[in-house]
Model the fold of this input.
Amino acid sequence: MKMGLSRRNFLKAGAAGVAIKVSLLPSPTQAELIQTPPRPGADWLAAGGKPKYRLDAIAKVTGGKTFSRDYRARDLEGWPKEQAHAFTLKATRVDRVFDSVDLSLLGDDLKPDRLVLHEDLVADGITLPSPWPGFYGDVFFVPKGQTARLLGQPVAMLIYHDFARYDAAKRKLRFNDKAVRYGPEGPSTTPGPYGAARYVRIDGGSPDAEDRYSSLKETTIRAGFKGEEPQWPAAGDGDAMARGMAAAAEIEREIAAAGDDALVLRRSFATQSADASAMEADNGNVWYDRASGLLHALIATQSPYEVAEATAHMVSKSKLPLNSVDLKIGYTVGYGTKDHAIFPYYCVLAGLYGDGRPVRLANDRFEQFQTALKRHAFQMEKVMVIDRKTGRFRAMTGRYRTDGGGRENFSVSVGTVGATAAQSIYYLPKSDFSAVILSSRAVDAGSMRGYGTLQTMAATEMMVDEAAEALGLDPMEFRRRNALKSGMKNSQGAIPSGAMRHGEILDRAQKHPLWANRQKRKAEFEAANPGKKYGVGYGHVHKDYGTGAESALCAIEFDAAGRLKLSHVAHEIGTGATTSQAVMAAGILGRQPDETEFGRVRWPQMPLETTDEPYTLSQEEEDKRKANPRWTPSFTSPMSASNSVYYLGHATREAAKALVELAIWPAARSLWSRGIGGGQMAPEAVRREDLRVVGGRVTAAAMQPLAFAEIAAEAHRLGLVTGVTVHSFNRWQWAEAEFDLPDTGQWRFAIDALAVKYGEGAPASRKELMTLEGWHFVERASVFYPPAQRNNAGVTYYAPMATLAEIAVDTGSGEISLLSHHSILECGNQIVPELVSGQIQGGIAMGIGHALKEYLPLHEDGPGDGTWNWNRYELPVSKDVAVWSQTSEVLPPLSDTDPPKGMAEVVMIAVVPALANAVAHAIGKRFYSLPITSEKIREALA
Amino acid sequence: MTIVTKPLSLTINDKAVGPIDVPEAMMMQDFLYEYLDLTGSRMGCGQGICHACTVVLEKPDGTLEEMRTCITGAHWFAGRKIRTVEGHAQRDANGAITALSPVQQAFIEHFSFQCGYCTPGFVTGATVLLDQLKRNPVKREALEQVISEALDRHICRCTGYVRYFEAVRDLALKTPGLVKA
Done:
């Protein structure tokens, strides 16, 4: 969930008249996929719709060019073949002003062909693009005479026209602290705190009753600052924020007055800054042709639209001419850290100063640690109030302070999402969670898998275990009494989507041998292994998925021969998004797409207009704007680990379902009605709901099964709809719209925009409507957008997961060995089970790293000093993750209509508290600071 | 200073390469990327830790060894024979893939990778391991341990290693002669 992004003003101000084009790189190897033995494309999907391998598998396993990093200028059509290269020098201290760069070490031969400093950008009028002031900081390079805003901030860029000199120069300057000269001490340029938000809720006496106060019903409370302390509004009975503070005060008084009949548990937790360590480091390649005003870019990013738009804004505001931005993207991976990162704009700078040459800026691993977005460190003060008699929560509060580093980025969003997730899986009659998002000279933090919830939910689950122990309750029983049940509200007062199945998960976990036999096994293990302690821990969480403003585009069309084409805005970041979209379409239509196009961003058939203020637009303003049938709150979303199957998949599913209604069903009826007296269909009462796709053929109520090719030919003959493009929007609820289609009546779909194609036999009057590159944009007759107030829901979509972790602790070395683990996930209908289990396994590995290994100091000894790599920053390797002894299960869906849930983030969280709770079981010590290292264990046991 | 270069010749994927003038200090991965357009062996850490950049060294005695190209100079490979990830699958005269190697086939069937950035290193490591098993078969009960020891040095950030390791185990078990009864 991300909130508050508003790009309208800067886009309108800067990029008017600049053409923007974004496209996925055409990979020769990718194209080979369709025809290449040993498995030609036609049998990519086995019978039953199960994919035999990922859509991108062959390109990736044979070393084909797939990542942005793999490409050079010579690979890109129309680009000059000579490739220039660039790197930046960075400030490693923020207490003294930047004076100059000293390149004398390089000698004359290795001097850069172009040196770019802040003053050059000033002369050319180039400034940072920014969704809002401060999002990416204030300047690209530290100006002479000023201190750096953050550790690792670039001071200069060196551009070389050839690789050999670039390579030699970079190696000479790496770790050299003489290359950047500093002057005297100077005033700090690190900004002030970024924001504060508070979510208060008091229920109406029961989960079903109307809340007395909640952010959904009333408002999210915001605060200004004095120094680093938030100044919350005064409590009172005035506006919604004052009433919210009064509710918070009431909760505080109740905690203070709690008697012996309640357990009041207060704990402080800390979680560390961490590096995503995406294997593909940030990179880009930009060619700027000043004469024509064309800027061509190839950049690794999870948010290509934002990069293209912001680049257009950045350059068009400068003195440099710009007519067009052509952005290409390859496959990439970032775990969130390539979404709205500043790095792409340094790539643009490299191109602008390339003297007409394509310039490549590609981080090595040291640079990646020094500059890539980090996971936020959190400090947490938590209070739980539990009724001793019932074992149920009366209230929970949490104060969360997080360090966003020297640029704001999505820090406020990450902090507030962390606060809204702090309740974990529990129903809380009263809750007060606040997030205070601070700045510092640390490397900037931003979007990263887990997005604040990893930090706050893990702490809650660790504390829940301790609370159960203090109450004398079995940890499973304590969880069972308090877990959210269907229809109960979250801490923002919103009712989550669908059934809450925590009880089923708890049942399975409680019966699992790891849990059921833990005491017996502990005694046996410790008797057999002197010096080692055995423990089993449990963690149970649920993670929201989505942003509260999810939008996507998908087109599905077929020709008269039945060849099916799927086009989608989604691109691949490793999660298998492209595979899943193709499988979903095939599942509904009964035929796999013969042709797929992902990462498509040119949609001439959808002439939509957007203000791109989905979080901040008032209801009144939105009501005005939605009268324009071409307006939408948001055009498309960045790619994230957990938004593909549900949100992006919704567009695929709606497009496929629309095609069923508008093409397959009427074409099938036409074929079944042929012949005297109404044909084979006449004797039966065949209804739309009887339609089934069986073995790739369409049938209904014993009608002759029809191949897709037969249906396609008939649809074209009749001039029916033969192509559908949809645009979807979700604000914790789907937008819906009605469309009047020629000769077929009114249709309602869970989309807000529609374009169609008509078949070859369509009358001229219908074909005349296909004016947008062969498509007819159908203006909606009416539209429903989820109310703007729903922004305060924080979240309504959750995927739950629980993990049991079995460990041994060496009491001498403090080393923790993970012996085995078992996880239980609920994610609706799985589209590709192999991809789901792969996400479970990979997410758990990342969680293990967070719990036990990965750590970055925030400031002077941290990654901003440019000396960090994987020799110091320990990533989990195979021996750390119990490769051969891990298991998992996925709850069966309630029915085949359960939507698939985004699960690629939740899978990394539960193992964190499971490990901490296992350590407590093993050695009787609880830890409140992550990671739990062997050193901390030794200290605790000393 | 002047960059000192010298000619480099070697055999890559069964093709003679060079002589090409290459700076003496250049690492092999950069030579592969920037001089030969072989970008499949991936830069991960540049320190020899993650093994995403490895290639197969084909020794004169027929044995194979995994080499890290990010910390090995290009000229170390002079006169030697290597196989990069681009050279494992069979290709036709036009370079189109006609058949994957057994390791590659096992990886795609097991959905072993996600982002796939580390996959070339795992293809290399697993290929070398299977070659070693062909020469020195192991007992069935030792197989998992042998795989773990051979591939533990490879870092993958996406997958948790399970589907890579299972693919190698299943391939070893179904390939005659690698595992003793």
About this structure: Residues 37 and 150 of chain B are 29 Å apart (CA to CA).
